[in-house]
Write a structure and sequence with these properties.
Elements: H1 4-15, H2 25-35, E1 43-44, E2 59-61, H3 70-75, E3 94-97, H4 98-107, H5 113-116, E4 118-120, H6 135-156, E5 163-165, H7 168-171, H8 175-191, E6 198-203, H9 209-221, H10 223-226, E7 229-235, H11 238-248, H12 254-257, E8 261-265, E9 279-284, E10 293-297, E11 304-311, E12 317-322, H13 327-339, H14 356-364, E13 375-377, H15 379-391, E14 395-402, E15 416-421, E16 424-428, E17 439-441, H16 446-457, E18 461-465, H17 466-473, E19 500-505
Parallel strand pairs: 4-5, 6-7, 6-9, 7-8, 9-14
Antiparallel strand pairs: 1-2, 2-12, 3-11, 10-11, 10-13, 11-12, 14-19, 15-16, 15-17, 18-19
Keywords: Methyltransferase, Mitochondrion, Transferase
Catalytic activity: L-arginyl-[protein] + 2 S-adenosyl-L-methionine = N(omega),N(omega)'-dimethyl-L-arginyl-[protein] + 2 S-adenosyl-L-homocysteine + 2 H(+)
EC number: 2.1.1.320
Length: 506
């Protein structure tokens, strides 16, 4: 694996149940300071008879002379995450596309990362930002809050493999949710009031804190709009759906809110009901965990090959590539080619500083790879836009996510793949890891996303930075440190989430 800590973690995973550890708080504080702000191969052609002419129809990875799995690739069935949904054990003797493997790793109800291993950090009381000295003081305060939160969890049950992460909704509550509420109410009054109700859909709702903060703010500031507000969460995880119902009880208006909310325990990708009314759709820091496909390109013909994962009888993972593109990948490439404002679109073979003759020369060198670096394409995001267009035709979208991420995974738009072990973040260099124990999250190319969204839905959009959006809608005075720094605006030493963008339907 990538480091001794990962090896140690996997020995524990496969050999014994997780055991408690001593709380090394000073070391944990140093680790958190480094990581909290950044939240969520060589190939060889093998001869076979698979193409009828003695040539191979797939590309096997050559990392230190791996085992030849040609026979297994011919014999193992291809499966999807949906087909594995009801399995309680991780699959063996199968193959699947990269997006289906990531989907299964993150969302399988029985062993997936989010249903079984993720814990969202939340505060007993919101921070008093005006009493905090500066950005460094806020960082120390958040570090201590993390330690206290995890100490409380360990007092109930110790877990070396606990996956803990935070969101701006939790860190900046209630001010973050209030900013979203102001945007919603203002746009609702400008376009829909009084002829329609304020209907809000949210996916990736986490603990349900955003829903509570939005409803609290609307009730306190505009009771007329509140009476016409309906909030609907679409939640894939049954445990998170239960948590969202529980979180609602912390609101002082719990009894009133019950009449306005509906939590639907269902994947957005299984949605099949037309919503005819005008409404708003929230997707905040959720598309980074949408599964992607991988492509590599032949450096000579520039032909794309689609990536997949083979899982053998021992559970070992083998990455492979084949020239056949499935329908979703082929459609994504067609839409990107037609809609992208960059022509040709950014790919591993479109770099003007890396011309074809130089690329071919490089691949002629001894031990050179016979395919380009991988490209990760957001095919599940395309399916999400299809669902919005088909079943939510009158939506207005508010979407935010990471524009860039520091990652050791090679490739274009490559993900961060990390887990936590004994309160330390462990980052690895491949997304093909033990299913359910690693968060796999991607940066978003907002220009490309905007182009594809417009092509699929026909709607106009606006893209701004996270700081610019909150600068327009948040209570800046209440969230400013004594030093004058403001963590919501994403700039300066006190700024958080400076690598996040926001896209809204115009």
């Amino acid at each position: 694996m990538d480091c001794p800590l990962v090896n140690q973690m996997f020995r524990q995973l496969f050999a014994t149940p997780a055991r408690g550890c001593l709380r090394q708080q000073q070391h944990a504080q140093r680790t958190f300071r480094r990581t909290l702000r950044e939240q969520r191969r060589h190939y060889a052609l093998r001869k076979t008879d698979s193409d009828g002419q003695g040539g191979s129809s797939w590309q096997q990875r050559l990392d230190h002379f791996p085992r030849d799995v040609s026979k297994q690739l011919r014999e193992y069935p291809r499966v999807t995450a949906r087909e594995l949904k009801h399995r309680s054990q991780r699959p063996m003797r199968v193959k699947m596309t990269t997006r289906e493997f990531i989907d299964d790793s993150l969302y399988n109800p029985n062993y997936g990362y989010f249903p079984k291993n993720a814990t969202i950090f939340n505060l007993a009381e919101p921070y008093d930002f005006t009493s905090i000295k500066d950005g460094a003081d806020f960082q120390r305060t958040v570090d201590q809050s993390y330690l206290d939160f995890e100490d409380d969890l360990d007092a109930i049950r110790q877990d070396d493999l606990r996956q803990l992460w935070h969101t701006p909704t939790e860190l900046f509550r209630p001010y973050y949710g209030e900013a979203i509420a102001r945007w919603l109410v203002t746009n609702y009054k400008n376009t829909l009031f009084p002829y329609h109700d304020l209907i809000i859909y949210e996916i990736g709702a986490g603990n349900g804190t955003l829903m509570c903060n939005i409803l609290d703010h609307i009730r306190e500031t505009d009771i007329e709009v509140y009476h016409r507000t309906k909030f609907r969460i679409i939640e894939i995880s049954a445990s998170l759906a239960d948590m969202q119902n529980t979180s609602l009880r912390h609101s002082p208006y719990f009894a009133d809110h019950l009449e306005h909310i509906h939590i639907i325990n269902k994947s957005i990708f299984e949605w099949d009901t037309l919503i005819p009314e005008p409404h708003f759709f929230l997707a905040l820091e959720v598309i980074d965990n949408f599964p992607h496909d991988t492509l590599r390109y032949d450096p000579y013909t520039e032909r794309p090959l689609q990536g997949g994962v083979l899982i053998d009888e021992t559970g070992a993972l083998f990455e492979y590539y084949e020239p056949h593109l499935d329908d979703l990948v082929a459609r994504f490439l067609r839409i990107r080619r037609a809609a992208s404002r960059h022509q040709p679109p950014h790919t591993p073979i479109s770099n003007k500083f890396y011309p074809p003759w130089l690329r071919k020369l490089r691949h002629e060198l001894p031990f050179a790879p016979n395919l380009t670096i991988p490209e990760y394409i957001p095919t599940r995001l395309l399916q999400f836009f299809d669902i919005l267009s088909s079943y939510f035709p009158h939506h207005r979208l508010l979407l935010s996510d990471f524009t860039q991420l520091p990652t050791p995974v090679p490739g274009l738009q490559a993900p961060v793949v990390q887990t936590r072990y004994k309160r330390q973040n462990v980052t690895v260099t491949t997304p093909f890891v033990h299913q359910g124990y690693f968060d796999i999250f991607f940066p978003t190319d907002f220009e490309l996303m905007e182009d594809i969204y417009r092509a699929v839905t026909g709607k106009l959009t606006r893209v701004v930075s996270h700081g610019d959006f909150l600068g327009s809608w948040a209570d800046i005075e209440a969230t400013t440190f004594k030093s004058g720094e403001n963590p919501l605006l994403g700039t300066g030493h006190g700024g958080w989430y400076g690598n996040v963008g926001v896209m809204t339907t115009a």
